[in-house]
Amino acid sequence: QAKEQGRNGYRIFDAEHDRRRRNRKESQERLQLALAHNELQLYYQPKVNMRSGQVVGAEALLRWHHPQHGVLAPGAFLADIEDSELDIPLGEWVLRTALAQMQYWRARGLLQGVSVNISAFHLQQPDFAHRMALILQDYPDVPRDMLEIEVLESTALSDLERVISLMRECQALGVRFALDDFGTGYSSLLYLKRLPADKLKIDQSFIRNMHEDTDDLAIVQGIIGLSGAFNRHLVAEGVETEEHGKLLLYLGCEVAQGYGIARPMPADSFFDWVRKWQGNPAWEYAGRQRWS
Ligand code: C2E
Ligand code: MG
Ligand code: MG
Ligand code: MG
């Protein structure tokens, strides 16, 4: 009797598993079409130095103009293609689109670097650095060090040595790396020690409540300390309010990205935004007051 139920249980599980796999397959096919039909677009979110007010770059963030559902953020579709074949053409499309954008901006006097998010699966392809070199060749006017690759801190876990060596190969091409969502992965310290990334991005989950939550505050302070000790650049993500900005400046983190500065926006809007951006005097004042 119990055995019978167990088998039933498995059958239900199998059916559910099957359904999920079919859905996943369908979304992958749908996204492949989206890529072919030009429904994908990169939005750009500025990163600014809060003390000087200078715009120091932009992060490219994927959006899908879905014919039925409107503009979708990655949360709505990326999980379905994670670790699938499609991850690679999609990642390469993102790289090419960002490079083409930088080339276009440069020709118009906007010299901003762009960082792109690359999935763990894509990054760990044996020919990643080789294909990166080929892609870069197609955009000869863009200085290599204007491209930055953001990898999730947890990415490296599956094969640290391999990731280290491919990051070195890419760095030899001039490309830089940032560890994204820093603090949310596993053993940050070993990876921080070993991975040749020159930037850490403090995850927004620690920024959000750092005013009230002393643990979050301690984590933010810890990451700021680590970035100094290991001589890495630092960006805080999810800076939504002036309060966030002021506290970060006080703690020693100058570069920020978040809705409090600007939301991700299409490339043309970014171009206009940079020309109008004046910095936030309140942050600058807080910085001067505390630091000089
Ligand atoms: P991420 O790389 O950590 O990017 C930051 C996310 O936080 C973005 O969400 C951004 O819109 C959002 N954000 C920025 N400032 C604020 C803020 O002040 N408050 C809040 N609540 N959120 C803020 P988005 O665009 O939905 O992207 C989510 C994640 O999807 C990204 O997290 C990244 O991991 C992934 N992703 C985005 N674009 C790509 C891509 O082209 N390729 C790959 N593989 N992954 C991507
Ligand atoms: Mg990112
Ligand atoms: Mg992040
Ligand atoms: Mg994130």
UniProtKB/TrEMBL annotation:
Domain of life the protein comes from: Bacteria
Residues annotated as signal peptide: none
EAL domain residues: 24-278
Stated name of the protein: EAL domain-containing protein
